[in-house]
Amino acid sequence: MQGEQNSSIRRGPIHRVTPGSYRFRQTFRYVLNAFLLSLAWIVPAGAQSISLYDQGKAAFYAHKWEDAAVLMARAEEQQPDKTDALLFGGKALANLKRFNDADAALTRYSKLHPDSAEALFVLGFVQHRENKPGDSLASYTAAARLATPRGDDLRIVGLDYVLLDDYPDAIHWLEKAVTFDPNDAEAWYSLARCYYTQSSFQKAEQAFQKTLSLDPKSVKAAENLALTFAAENRVSDADESFRLAISLAHDDPHTNEWPYLNYGSFLLDHDRAAEAVPLLQEAVARAPRCAACHEKLGRALNGSGATKQGITELEQAVALSPDEAHLHYELGLAYRAAGMQDRAKVEFATSAKLYGTKSEKEQK
């Protein structure tokens, strides 16, 4: 990717306000566009005193993404390639997470306006969200020939390489991203994850710490820092970071099962089954169809002496993921410990068969 060329062509994010006198002008524009938008509903349909394009811009700057998308589509139909309706419509669709539709609008606009760096940068982001890393990288490369990328752009380029399972290149671009913007917590987190995946635990620790310094309420940063400490066998540090992650998770209604599952698994690995039970129960509550959550809870219950409940959880794990050999093996162990030898034999045989099938597929 070519990325450090200067150009007079600049673009903003999907929506962006910068400080200083520009903030005043931007705020004034928002107020004016909001006023125009309010007039749009008053002016008779046939009056045409306010164009569809202007109505769409007013809706866009008022963050009324659905209205903006509809109005810009109508504006483009009315005056094909006479305005930036496709560009604004594509951005609105991206904000609505309608990435396929955004891709179509931005691709068409880019073909009509090949010198628009703004459209190409946004298109690259959209294609990344569509899990099309090759296309995304091509769009970012074309954009970088026209304008200097921001840190956000380089972060997405790095994540494209993650999708391509190319971690050295991912690290290269994410390191550039944090150099461009040292206060980008998301870029630091993504870089830390790449370091962790490559077993560069000291670098991962430093990057996760940096993430937390920029975003002290980041559950995922605290959780992954704990995993990093665990990988380095720093048990007490891992325990402390996991506790921080759980504390933060309690205050975040959007937290998924992972902090609870990872901490519970850590406690299981260190023979602390009773402590793991409530954490893994929370993981199951947050993700009832998570086979790993039921499996770990089953093991924790068995380790705490609640054999009947533990078997129930392991049976649920097998029901959710019947082709996982290790789940049948764990259930077989639980059956055997409970004196249910016939059932144990069936599970061990199923496990062995699945392991054999998996081995054959890997050989092919």
How would you explain this protein's 3D organization?
With 364 residues, the chain is mostly helical. It has a domain at 1-7 and 22-149: Alpha Horseshoe (Serine Threonine Protein Phosphatase 5, Tetratricopeptide repeat), CATH 1.25.40.10. The chain is 73% helix and 0% strand. The protein has helices spanning 21-40, 52-61, 65-78, 85-95, 99-112, 117-129, 133-144, 151-163, 167-180, 185-197, 201-214, 219-231, 235-250, 258-269, 273-286, 291-303, 307-320, 325-337, 341-363. The longest helix is centred in the last third of the chain and has 23 residues, at 341-363. It is elongated.
Short descriptors:
single chain; elongated; 73% helix; Serine Threonine Protein Phosphatase 5, Tetratricopeptide repeat; 364 residues; mainly alpha
CATH topology of the domain at 1-7 and 22-149: Serine Threonine Protein Phosphatase 5, Tetratricopeptide repeat
Report the top-level CATH class of the domain at 1-7 and 22-149. Answer: Mainly Alpha
Sheet with the most strands, sense and barrel status: none
Provide the β-strand percentage band: under 5%
| Strand tally | 0
Span between termini: 36 Å
The helix-and-strand class reads mainly alpha
- Give the low-confidence spans: 2-25, 39-48
Which whole number gives the mean pLDDT? 89
Oligomer: single chain
CATH architecture of the domain at 1-7 and 22-149: Alpha Horseshoe
Shape: elongated
CATH superfamily of the domain at 1-7 and 22-149: Tetratricopeptide repeat domain
Helix content: over 70%
